[in-house]
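Table 4 source record.
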Amino acid sequence: MEVSGEQAHLLPVGERARHLFGKGEGKVTPARKKKLAQLDLFKVLEQADEGGTTFGLPAGKAGGTVLDRIHQSMILFAAGRSEALKRFIVEVGVGRDERFWKLAQALSALYPPHTEEKRWVDGVLARKKGLGF
């Protein structure tokens, strides 16, 4: 989130990937084509895996806020890392926090239709029941 005076702007999920997956501050360079944007997410996750992390997360740690954890889940979904997503939600335990599911549902309602972020958060929500939540 960027704050300027009394206004706050929520950064796109892809721009937070490096921060969320332990490879330092910085943004994933926005790409002009959807496929390229998704490749940037893959690159961030591959770099995180090379750095000795657990499924892209430093020592299996979840983000510090509920929004961070939702964004981490969305990025794992976008990268097609379904086993890592399952472990993150079940074993790390982010799915036990009802706030996680409530905020994910709110984001789904707020994201414009036909956007990647909406598809990603809806993909995470679609796994809720199958994961026992």
